[in-house]
Amino acid sequence: MQIGIDKLGLFTPNTYLDLVMLANARGVDPDKFTIGIGQDQMAIAPLSQDSVTMGANAALDLLEGESRDNISLLILGTESGIDQSKAGAIYIQRLLGLSNARTFEIKEACYGATAGLMTAYDYVAAHPDQKALVIGSDIARYGLETPGEVTQGAGAVAMLVSAQPRLMVLEPETSIHSADIQDFWRPNYSKEAFARGKYSTEQYIEFFQKTWADYRAKTGRTIADFKALAFHLPYTKMGLKALRTILDEGSETQQAQLLERYAESTLYSRQIGNIYTGALYLGFLSLLEHSTNLEAGDRIGLFSYGSGAVSEFFTGILQPGFEKQLAKQKHADLLANRRQLTMVEYETQFQTELPEDGSEYEIDLTMDNAPIILKGVKDHERIYMTR
């Protein structure tokens, strides 16, 4: 039985910051942002969007025209959780009308959505007549005028996992490497993450090399067996650094092809920024919706990395007619219709927060046109609304 990704959905807030503007405001050469780390814009989430609403909106993107009766598993991968006890997935379940779904949230930094995808694979294998919905939804925050400010972002990717998928069949062979390291973390008392940037990059590359070597040893496959490699992208130059460590295993033609496919995989990330658990799948979606050289039967490699750290290299085979499962124009419109913030608007929006004492608060919704939004807080409860 073949199991894999049947459809992909995408959501990002409708406001963004231009990184040349940010560079000028911070007294930095814009090339350091646009060329050095490979980012052009970053999505900025208003108060009315959080990991719940973005995840639900991304799922709406792929559920259009789909029966929801046989979606019996819903998993949210996030490191932007809204509650220490109740899973954000429970809110999403109600907002989407999936009342018969086993529902929970997974946390392991940026690896959370991949953990959800692998769990969904096993679930569908045991229940082939059922489908699973896996969501990676996050807001990346590092603080104003911090080294990580330029690698912020917000968004969500949703995946429908099924037997006989129409987009990509996941192959069973995967390679995993994990270790207890302190490259990135966010204690309960902090709203922003702590990161050892250079160390994290070194670990990311090392973890990729280990999983790639293990995968090759297990399967006997080489770089020649892949049409493209997609990477977790906290910023777009990160994956390129890892890819370059194995390029010499292929011919010059193969190297050029992989680099071209890699560039295609970064286009959405350059406009949205880091979305943590969804970042790998944002790159994968960008690859599928921008490449004109992919065909049914092509093997795609995917490298997932979650700080702390867990990594996994896995693969999939594109299916006949996979293009029909994509929504390129819809996603292009989503990005094109966003509003660019000024620096004052960005900093004000970044610093505006919900009350921490649970008191009543109503959010101004005039600037948010998303179908599902956070309306406010009342009696310590978040009030979500579907328009």
From TrEMBL:
Its EC number is 2.3.3.10. Gene3D superfamilies: 3.40.47.10. GO terms for molecular function: hydroxymethylglutaryl-CoA synthase activity. Residues 2-162 form the Hydroxymethylglutaryl-coenzyme A synthase N-terminal domain. Pfam families: HMG_CoA_synt_C, HMG_CoA_synt_N. The active site is at 79 (proton donor/acceptor), 110 (acyl-thioester intermediate), 232 (proton donor/acceptor). The keyword Acyltransferase applies. Residues 259-350 form the Hydroxymethylglutaryl-coenzyme A synthase C-terminal domain. GO terms for biological process: acetyl-CoA metabolic process. InterPro entries: HMG_CoA_synt_C_dom, HMG_CoA_synth_N, HMG_CoA_synthase_prok, Thiolase-like. SUPFAM superfamilies: Thiolase-like. Keywords: Acyltransferase, Transferase. (3S)-3-hydroxy-3-methylglutaryl-CoA binds at residues 29, 142, 241, 274. Belongs to the thiolase-like superfamily. HMG-CoA synthase family. NCBIfam families: HMG-CoA-S_prok. This is Hydroxymethylglutaryl-CoA synthase. It comes from Latilactobacillus sakei subsp. sakei (strain 23K) (Lactobacillus sakei subsp. sakei). The lineage of its organism: Bacteria, Bacillati, Bacillota, Bacilli, Lactobacillales.
